[in-house]
């Protein structure tokens, strides 16, 4: 441990010991997101960025947070979010879990104009960072509608244009829920025809896998379909809220083997997972797709025909048996009742009970699907990120994952069950999800990274929410920092609104997370410019296996004045094929510190062929673009 601490302390120059910062989180156990061993140290914040990590000695700050006995980690990134627009201004249920960033429109939901949608989210301020996917289902519903029919070539082109425009406007990938109508009706070749436009964006395809009666309700086949779409479109397939269901329970190893095989074939395959044995959806998920085609009015007409009603009831019962092990697997949380009790009270067959309930309204249901051994296997899988399938909410009903997911992993699965190490659990909540979606300025505690930080007590962190009391707050998260400002202090919201809209650019590819055991480097020079500024960039960096940060030099020379901005501290190098990015703290000639991010992108083929591009961002501002020499 002393060697690790020494390496961490080396991140801070001697000059830093007399520095004054905005905030210092002092004396905590730092788990930096890389997966490397924890170490004792301090984290300094200047403005919106992390300024230093390590032993800060006698450095002072306006705000000093005593983190002795606490864990200091990057803010958690929820890449499968259903955040409610009226809740993101407070986001208490997420902040108290340590979440600082959410990527919503999961399962293909949302609108076909994310710019307008983001403006709506941000209208009353943001307590957390918010980004959006563009939903395949949203595009299909707008262009094709709710009918079960084939899309024309013109409609395929329109949907491609919707995806392309929204990806250019900052969407973090193409999310899909092929198990949900009307996306359910799309054939694989149609999905591929639409989603393939995203290949040039080097992005990801998180999909709620499609479970179909003609495939005996096999979740295996649904997950294989997700992977196949990724392989055919050139995007990273993400098996979202990964699970095995019904008759396939207890076979997580087989699913992992399918994913590993795809990765070996050259299609890196990732997943997200939450730590529960039940999901949440509409009761109508049990009704066969053909019975819902055309929307609610069409469904009710089919219910009214006696012969059709009987067929729907039979097929609904088959779905319940295959997916949730029958009526006992369903709890209607909006009614606060077990579905099996309602069936007995109605004195009808289960399928008929579903129809009668849906004739009144859609009902939200807790759907029990799995085995604990599968949850553990998926939590442990190296390419599975933690995500709660929840989001900022002010509702009083729902699934306990909305208040408990991240603390449940850290309390139950790390501290109590010891099926995950603390370092790997944090990696799965931070740097791994960031890499999956393409984010490169969050996910690590490193100089130059955005100052999104979670501080929690590893001895007490735990969830308290249950299916009967789903909004009971978790405990243990003590402080949360969002873009440099404390948003949660001693477990209570400070009501600040320092969250930001986060957008993806074409130079932020989805990718496997850089292994901490990999040696990497960056050697590049070039000129960049934009916004009436221009700089010559010179980078010569190396990072050895097991090191937390790169070493070497990174300088910017102002082309107009000839003044040089020199390296103060360097963050971690992130690598993918043809792409490398690093953050750093630079000092300008006046002695002022600046957060910098430098990216060399040699694999961008959006213009038809690979065109090496050098990108520099200063203090979180707009990109300055150039061509490496």
From TrEMBL:
Keyword Hydrolase among UniProt keywords: yes
Domain of life assignment: Bacteria
Signal peptide bounds: 1-18
Keywords carried by this UniProt record: Hydrolase, Signal
Xref: InterPro entries: Amidohydro_3, D-aminoacylase_insert_dom_sf, Metal-dep_hydrolase_composite, Metal_Hydrolase
GO MF, one annotated term: hydrolase activity, acting on carbon-nitrogen (but not peptide) bonds, in linear amides
SUPFAM superfamilies: Composite domain of metallo-dependent hydrolases, Metallo-dependent hydrolases
All residue ranges annotated as the Amidohydrolase domain in the record: 401-484
One Pfam family cited in the UniProt record for this chain: Amidohydro_3
Protein's name according to its UniProt entry: Amidohydrolase family protein
Organism: Sphingomonas aliaeris
């Amino acid at each position: 441990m002393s060697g690790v601490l020494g390496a961490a302390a080396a991140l801070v120059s001697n000059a830093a010991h007399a520095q004054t910062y905005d905030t210092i989180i002092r004396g905590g156990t730092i788990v930096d997101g890389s997966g490397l061993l924890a170490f004792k140290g301090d984290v300094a914040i200047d403005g919106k960025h992390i300024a230093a990590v390590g032993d800060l000695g006698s450095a002072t700050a306006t705000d000093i947070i005593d983190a002795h006995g606490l864990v200091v980690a990057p803010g958690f990134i929820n890449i499968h979010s259903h955040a409610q627009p009226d809740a993101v201004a407070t986001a208490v249920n997420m902040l108290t879990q340590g979440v600082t960033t959410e990527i919503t429109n999961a399962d293909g939901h949302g609108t076909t104009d994310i710019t307008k949608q983001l403006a709506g989210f941000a209208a009353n301020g943001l307590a957390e960072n918010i980004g959006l996917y563009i939903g395949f289902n949203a595009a299909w519903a707008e262009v094709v509608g709710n009918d079960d029919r084939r899309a024309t070539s013109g409609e395929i082109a329109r949907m491609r244009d919707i995806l392309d425009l929204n990806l250019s406007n900052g969407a973090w990938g193409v999310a899909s829920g092929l198990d949900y109508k009307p996306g359910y009706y799309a054939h694989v070749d149609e999905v591929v025809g639409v989603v393939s436009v995203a290949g040039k964006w080097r992005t990801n395809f998180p999909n709620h896998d499609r479970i179909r009666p003609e495939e005996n309700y096999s979740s295996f086949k649904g997950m294989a379909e997700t992977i196949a779409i990724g392989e055919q479109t050139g995007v990273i397939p993400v098996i979202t809220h990964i699970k095995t269901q019904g008759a396939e329970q207890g076979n997580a190893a087989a699913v992992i083997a399918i994913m590993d095989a795809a990765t070996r074939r050259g299609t890196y395959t990732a997943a997200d997972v939450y730590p529960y044995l039940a999901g949440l959806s509409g009761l109508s998920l049990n009704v066969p797709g053909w019975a819902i085609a055309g929307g609610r009015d069409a469904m009710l007409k089919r219910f009214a025909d006696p012969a059709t009603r009987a067929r729907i009831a039979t097929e609904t019962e088959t779905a319940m048996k295959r997916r949730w092990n029958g009526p006992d697997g369903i709890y209607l949380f909006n009614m606060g009742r077990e579905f099996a009790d309602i069936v007995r009270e109605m004195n009808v067959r289960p399928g008929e009970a579903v129809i009668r309930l849906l004739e009144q309204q859609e009902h939200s249901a807790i759907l029990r699907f799995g085995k604990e051994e599968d949850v553990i296997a998926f939590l442990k899988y190296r390419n599975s990120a933690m995500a709660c399938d929840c989001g900022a909410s002010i509702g009083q009903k729902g699934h306990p994952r909305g208040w408990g997911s991240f603390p449940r992993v850290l309390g139950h699965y790390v501290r109590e069950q010891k099926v995950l190490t603390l370092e790997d659990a944090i990696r799965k909540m931070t740097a791994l999800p960031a890499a999956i979606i393409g984010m490169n300025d969050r996910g690590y505690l490193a100089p130059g990274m955005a100052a999104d930080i979670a501080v929690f007590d590893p001895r007490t962190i735990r969830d308290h929410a249950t299916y009967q009391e789903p909004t009971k707050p978790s405990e243990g998260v003590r402080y949360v920092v969002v873009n440099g400002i404390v948003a949660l202090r001693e477990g209570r919201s400070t009501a600040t609104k320092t969250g930001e809209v986060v957008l993806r650019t074409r130079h932020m590819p989805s990718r496997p997370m850089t292994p901490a055991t990999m040696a990497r480097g960056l050697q590049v020079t070039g000129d960049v410019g934009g916004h009436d500024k221009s700089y010559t960039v010179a980078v010569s960096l190396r990072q050895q296996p097991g090191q937390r940060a790169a070493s070497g030099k990174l300088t910017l020379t102002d082309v107009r004045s000839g003044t040089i901005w020199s390296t103060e501290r360097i963050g971690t190098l992130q690598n993918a094929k043809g792409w490398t990015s690093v953050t750093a703290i630079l000092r300008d000639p006046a002695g002022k510190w600046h957060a910098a991010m430098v990216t060399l992108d040699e694999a961008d083929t959006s213009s038809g062929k690979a065109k090496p591009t050098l990108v520099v961002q200063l203090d979180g501002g707009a990109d300055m673009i150039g061509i490496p020499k």
